[in-house]
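Quarterly update from the structural biology core.
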Amino acid sequence: MHIAEGMLPAPYAIAYWVGAGVFFAAGAKSLAKKSQEIPMMKQLTGVMTAGIFLVSLLPIPVPMTGTCSHPGGTPLGAILLGPAVSVLMSLIALLFQALFFSHGGLTTLGANTLTMGVFGGWAGWLLFWGLRRLKLNLFWSGFIAGFLGDLAIYIGTSTQLALAIHGTHPFSEVFKAILVVFIPTQWPIAILEGIFTGLVLKYIADHRPDILIMLRVLPASNEATHPRYDESSSTNLSERGKIG
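Predicted structure, tokenized:
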């Protein structure tokens, strides 16, 4: 993602800004609600936003597209904090990148937010919970969600670019051409993002399952069955959240 400034015609840029604004408002509402129900929700959102900012700040330029490849981080963010909140985190991270690092742009911020937050976040979240309902374990559910969620971001970016530049050429041909250009850089990055997502979820489940229970990623039954679960740690976490 990170479509560069000036790459999108004004009508498209405005439409994407409006769409991103709708999802951002939904994310803010979701965060406000969850902050009342989940201890330290705002703090966790801040940490996750910083993580998304960092992992998506290492771009690999993609020739002829006016954009770049890099991890997204939003599939994991959506799994942990919810897909609506992942859009909010994406917009904030991308805004700071555009302002201070010239990654992306302000006119393309709406488009970049939609691809990273909506395509990546929602795809990752839906895949993760679909696979969990099929009884796939935590690591592989996270791996597939991270891998395909990352690729979903670039399918979205390819769609946006093809719509903007196809001109008299068939949209499908331009879309395929852009997507093919992404493959050499994005395929290995997507695999790494899948591994990272799965490992992070597995690590938290092994060492601090109370966090995943609090975020409703793991069922409450894990309180009694997980061998590493420490009831006092969950209580202390809750108390710290109330104090903060």
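The two ends are 35 Å apart (CA to CA).
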